[in-house]
Amino acid sequence: MYLAMNRFSILKGQEEAFETVWRERESRLSDVPGFQKFHLLKGAFDEDDGTTLYATHTIWSSREDFVNWTKSEHFREAHKNAGGNRHLYAGHPKFEGFEAVLSE
């Protein structure tokens, strides 16, 4: 199992717009070999920097399946308009990838 996660710092007042982008996107992940699950998670508001933490994570059968997706037309289509939402973010998303070591 492989978990791919992106962390986003969203500017105060832009939370609903950020969530709407994700709700209204045309996801074709279910068509991608090895894809299992997607979640959008909302974290705490950080008073010091005026942002709300969000994370997306996808679960894949393997790291290879994830890497293959990142090289696919599905990936390019899913990310083609990402730059149009820069005004929502405080900095760039941060990617983290994890391979399962122990599962129960």
Describe the protein.
- The protein is of the alpha+beta class and 104 residues long.
- 24% of the residues lie in helices and 37% in strands.
- It has three helices and four strands, in the order βαββααβ.
- The chain has a four-stranded antiparallel sheet.
- A hairpin with a 4-residue loop joins strand 2 and strand 3.
- The radius of gyration is 14 Å and the shape is globular.
- The model has no long low-confidence stretch (mean pLDDT 92).
Quick synopsis:
The chain is an alpha+beta fold. The protein has 3 helices and 4 strands, in the order E-H-E-E-H-H-E. The model has no long low-confidence stretch (mean pLDDT 92).
Question: How far apart are the termini?
Answer: 12 Å
Point out poorly predicted stretches. Answer: none
CA radius of gyration is 14 Å
Write down the overall geometry.
Answer: globular
pLDDT averaged over residues: 92
Number of strands: 4
- Written as H for each helix and E for each strand, in order along the chain, the element string is EHEEHHE
By DSSP (H or I, 4+ residues per run), the number of helices equals 3
Strand order of the largest sheet: 2-3-1-4
Structural class: alpha+beta
Please give the largest β-sheet. 4 strands, antiparallel
- Oligomeric form: single chain
Q: How helix-rich are the residues, as a percent range?
A: 10-25%
